[in-house]
Write a structure and sequence with these properties.
There is one protein chain. Helices cover about 40% and strands about 15% of the residues. With about 300 residues, the protein is α/β, with parallel strands linked by helices. The protein starts with 5 loop residues before the first strand and ends in a 5-residue tail after the last helix.
């Protein structure tokens, strides 16, 4: 197999945002550079959220200012609302990822907005972005990620019909890349396939990007199901660190090195250096004060 799978590295954002340790912007910038040296082409580098809500993500502007320009790399900033988007425009981010919730319960907890109001907020961002196009300052590309697609800590199960409706709404707004996130790690490979098919039918022209958490030890299996269903873009976090501070029990992401190992053993191309990823996972484990939970950071790759 020669098919390429793009892995978007989210360790510097989703990985660190749920850790007890609060790292200085300089350390977070070094993590970004280490991950890029290990092969990350797209990386969620920062989050433009209020520092009182997520102190681990404070100093996004300082992180971006510490990163030298890197041709062929794309640094992504996560935003929850228009204020975050405006902050992102003042930095050197190449992409903005707007986080939305597919459920009202999580949306009200995370952003203070029901789903329909979040979609209206995204529409306003897109309108402002269109008005800014053609100016002297380049406008970052934009994607949107839906959280809690496989289950919500407040509203429970999420139906396929709900996925179809919300993904369809984003497609009608013209969103080119739509992320589907299993925020609390409750998905299984079969439901992954069903919801990918539903999302693809609702947004046939959009790129689907899948984001899995390994909370219940199904993350890698779910990633496998996504690849089998034709998805070419997956999120992962170095060391398997991370989670969501607003979702009870939402522990770590799928580990980048674990995912790279599985895919490359099967013959898929990821562009990552597995040894460098493992070294970086161990490095960030020292910085956050605990070993990272990934299997490869403990066992190493194979063959040696």
């Amino acid at each position: 197999m020669s098919r390429a799978i793009q892995i978007v590295e989210v360790g510097a954002r989703d990985g660190l945002q749920n850790e007890k340790a609060i790292l200085d912007p300089a350390v977070r910038a070094e993590l970004v550079l280490r991950l890029e040296a290990a092969g990350a082409r797209r990386i969620e580098a920062v989050s433009f959220v209020h520092p009182k809500l997520v102190p681990q993500m404070a100093g996004a502007e300082e992180v971006m200012a510490a990163l030298p320009p890197a041709e062929g790399r794309s640094r992504i900033g996560l935003v929850l609302n228009g204020k975050g988007y405006d902050r992102a425009l003042g930095t050197g981010v190449d992409e903005v990822n707007v986080s939305l919730s597919i459920t009202d319960g999580f949306g009200l907890k995370n952003q203070g907005l029901a789903t329909k109001d979040q979609i209206a907020m995204l529409e306003a961002i897109l309108a402002g972005r269109a008005n800014s196009a053609g100016g002297e300052t380049p406008v970052p590309s934009l994607s949107a990620t839906l959280s809690c697609v496989w289950g919500c800590p407040f509203d429970g199960e999420v139906s396929v019909e709900k996925v179809t409706a919300v993904v369809g709404a984003l497609a009608r707004l013209g969103v080119k890349e739509i992320g589907l996130a299993d925020t609390i790690g409750v998905g299984d490979p079969w439901s992954v396939t069903r919801k990918i098919l539903a999302a693809r039918a609702a947004a046939p022209d959009a790129i689907l990007r899948l984001h899995f958490h390994d909370t219940r030890n199904t993350g890698v299996a779910n990633a496998y199901a996504a690849v089998q269903a034709g998805v070419d873009v997956l999120d992962a976090s170095v060391g398997g660190i991370g989670g969501c501070p607003f979702a009870p029990g939402a522990t770590g992401n799928v580990a980048t090195e674990d995912l790279v190992y599985m895919l490359e053993r099967a013959g898929y191309a990821t562009g990552y250096d597995l040894d460098a990823l493992i070294e970086t996972a161990r490095w960030i484990g020292e910085r956050i004060g605990r070993p990272t939970p990934s299997a490869l950071s403990r066992a190493g790759g194979w063959p040696r």
